């Protein structure tokens, strides 16, 4: 919300977009809606009370009369809920839906995409992979191109942990450092065991290669078993460990993996450290297209949602 407010004047003057916030919902604040507009500063500070009679996303949407919904719940690896229902509801209500949650892309992309088309609305999700870097919208600008494969480093938490291990910390100390930096969750299981990277890989395959893929079809290995000694030895050999996502289109379908690999110093991925990310696409027209995100700041994910907002409400 803060980035949206920071860019309010630019949105109005450059894109002709004006807005008001009519609803907000979270575990901490509850369901709050007022179609005439809420005080943004009160929402940010939490000094606002739940609205009476609102018990679910549908009653809340009706009260808010929203034209656009931003969905940013936590990832549910198993089935993508409740985010899927949170996205389906505004589309059925007649609002655009924008999410930063990868789960619905993996578990319900085609259903939600087709619903959005049927209702004449947008379902956008640029922030689901590499924060706000324009990956999905990038391919929108490449009509009639065929993606043959990709590889990259898509989980910043494991990248930070591996970097800290290279710098002398052990595994547990590196996790605590990542948590102190606000990069790792209190429970970093999804990151260190490769689930987050696998979900991002599945999302890219599902959308960009137009092949739905289940998470159990992607062999996954995290970094939990790597010792600090092995990580530092690999770095000394100029073949550092990175958690690599790979996907390739073959005669028999899509093959994909997520696993730690030693990367030669000549590979650009070997230079990706800290919170940076990297992806390399192989297409039938361009043999290689690479995108690098260099140590993104606080607003990176929020920017992806802001960009989707502009795409959704402008012709």
Report the β-strand fraction as a percent range. Answer: 15-25%
Low-confidence stretches: none
Beginning-to-end CA distance, first to last residue = 23 Å
Described by the principal axes of the CA atoms, the overall outline is: globular
Total strands: 10
Which bin fits the share of residues in helices?
25-40%
Mean pLDDT: 95
SS class: alpha+beta
Task: Please describe the topology of this protein.
Blueprint: H1 2-6, H2 8-15, E1 23-26, E2 30-33, H3 40-45, H4 57-64, E3 68-71, H5 83-93, E4 96-99, H6 103-119, E5 123-124, H7 136-140, E6 147-153, H8 156-166, H9 171-180, H10 189-192, H11 195-208, H12 228-236, E7 241-250, E8 253-262, E9 277-283, E10 289-293, H13 300-313
Parallel strand pairs: 3-4, 4-5
Antiparallel strand pairs: 1-2, 6-7, 6-9, 7-8, 9-10
The gist of it:
About 40% of the residues lie in helices and about 20% in strands.
Description:
This protein is an alpha+beta fold. Helices cover 39% and strands 18% of the residues. It has 13 helices and 10 strands. The chain has helices at 2-6, 8-15, 40-45, 57-64, 83-93, 103-119, 136-140, 156-166, 171-180, 189-192, 195-208, 228-236, 300-313, and strands spanning 23-26, 30-33, 68-71, 96-99, 123-124, 147-153, 241-250, 253-262, 277-283, 289-293. A 5-stranded antiparallel sheet has the order 8-7-6-9-10. The chain has a 3-stranded parallel sheet with strand order 3-4-5, sandwiched between helices. A two-stranded antiparallel ribbon has the order 1-2. Strand 7 (241-250) and strand 8 (253-262) form a beta hairpin. Helix 6 (103-119) packs parallel to helix 11 and helix 8 (156-166) crosses helix 9 (171-180). The radius of gyration is 20 Å and the shape is globular. 39% of the residues are buried. The mean pLDDT is 95.
């Amino acid at each position: 919300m803060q980035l949206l407010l920071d860019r309010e004047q630019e949105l109005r003057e450059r894109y002709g977009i004006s807005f008001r916030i009519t609803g907000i919902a979270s575990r901490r604040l509850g369901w709050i809606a007022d179609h005439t507009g809420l005080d943004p500063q009160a929402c940010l500070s939490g000094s606002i009370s739940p609205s009476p009679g609102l018990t679910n996303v549908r009653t809340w949407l009706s009260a808010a009369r929203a034209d656009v919904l931003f969905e940013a719940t936590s990832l549910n690896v198993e089935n993508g809920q409740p985010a899927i229902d949170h996205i389906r509801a505004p589309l059925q209500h007649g609002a655009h839906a924008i999410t930063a949650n990868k789960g619905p892309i993996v578990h319900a992309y085609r259903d939600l995409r087709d619903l959005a088309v049927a209702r004449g609305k947008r379902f956008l999700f640029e922030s689901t992979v590499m924060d706000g870097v324009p990956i999905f919208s990038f391919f929108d600008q490449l009509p009639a191109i065929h993606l043959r494969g990709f590889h990259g480093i898509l989980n910043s938490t494991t990248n930070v942990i591996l970097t800290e291990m290279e710098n002398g910390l052990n595994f547990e100390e590196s996790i605590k450092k990542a948590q102190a930096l606000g990069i790792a969750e209190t429970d970093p299981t999804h990151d260190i065991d490769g689930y987050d990277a696998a979900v991002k890989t599945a999302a890219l395959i599902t959308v960009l290669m137009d092949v739905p893929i289940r998470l159990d079809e992607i062999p996954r290995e995290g970094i939990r078993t790597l010792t600090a000694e092995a990580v530092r030895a690999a770095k000394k050999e100029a073949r550092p460990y990175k958690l690599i996502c790979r996907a390739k289109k073959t005669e028999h379908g899509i093959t994909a993996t997520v696993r730690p690999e030693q990367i030669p110093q000549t590979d650009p991925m070997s230079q990706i450290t800290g919170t940076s990310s990297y992806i390399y696409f192989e297409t039938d027209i361009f043999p290689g297209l690479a995108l690098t995100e260099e140590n993104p700041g606080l607003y990176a994910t929020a920017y992806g949602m802001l960009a989707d907002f502009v795409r959704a409400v402008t012709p």
